[in-house]
Amino acid sequence: MKKITFLFLAFLSLSILALKNKTPEETKSINWVSFEEAIKLQEKNPKKIIVDVYTAWCGPCKMMMANTFTHPYIIDYINKNYYAVKFNAEGPDDVTVKGHTFKNPNYNPERANSRNGTHELAYSIAAVNGSIAYPTLVYFDEKLNIMQAIQGYQTPQQLEPILKFFGEDHYKTTKWEVFYSTFKTGIK
To answer: What is the pLDDT of residues 9-54, one digit of tens each?
Structure first.
């Protein structure tokens, strides 16, 4: 009986130690910065920028944050190849890009957590065929030129080829359809 108790306590101790050692991996996250911070970082070390255009009330935005942007492979790839920006399309903050200040003149602080006025920057970068949907991921090159805005929820498996298409400059020489037809995932 003493041997069983000893083995149980030893197993329990090792299990707790193993769980404790996993926490740094679990706390790993995308290094989100403001648009202005991304521009400053880019001056020192040019990288592409990915902007997650979201709203406080958007269910698919919350799902993407919980399911896609927490995937270890996606976290590593974005942190290595992009400056990542979260931009609230209905937020109150002014944002200056390429010398132009974008505002949200219709922002209402009383509706901060519900539908609100749309920010001028959201109209400028996230509109696809004249309409805005959330979430929208906007990809910028190292010179702050928009490469593409892609609307809608994406799983890690859907996002990975898009990240690589732009992040590894395939878009410069290969059509998306050709790239995608030969794409091999790195997600295990």
So the answer is: 444 344 444 444 444 455 699 999 999 999 999 999 999 999 999 9
Q: Is 61 left (phi over 0), alpha (psi -120 to 50) or beta?
A: alpha
- What is the Cα–Cα distance from 132 to 118, expressed in whole angstroms? 10
Phi, psi of 112 (to 5 degrees): -60, -35
Which DSSP symbol is given to 30?
-
The string of DSSP codes covering 34-98 is -HHHHHHHHHHS--EEEEEEE-TT-HHHHHIIIIITT-HHHHHHHHHHEEEEEEETT----EEET
Please report the domains of the chain, with CATH numbers, ordered by start residue: 24-155 (3.40.30.10)
Residue 127 DSSP SS3: coil
User: Between β-strands 82-88 and 48-54, what pairing exists: parallel, antiparallel or unpaired?
Assistant: parallel
- Residue 71 burial class via C-beta count within 10 angstroms: exposed 0-12, middle 13-18, buried 19 and up: middle
C-alpha torsion 27→29→35→165, nearest 10? 180
Rounded to an integer, what distance in angstroms lies between the CA atom of residue 102 and that of residue 39?
Answer: 15
| Res 18: pLDDT | 44
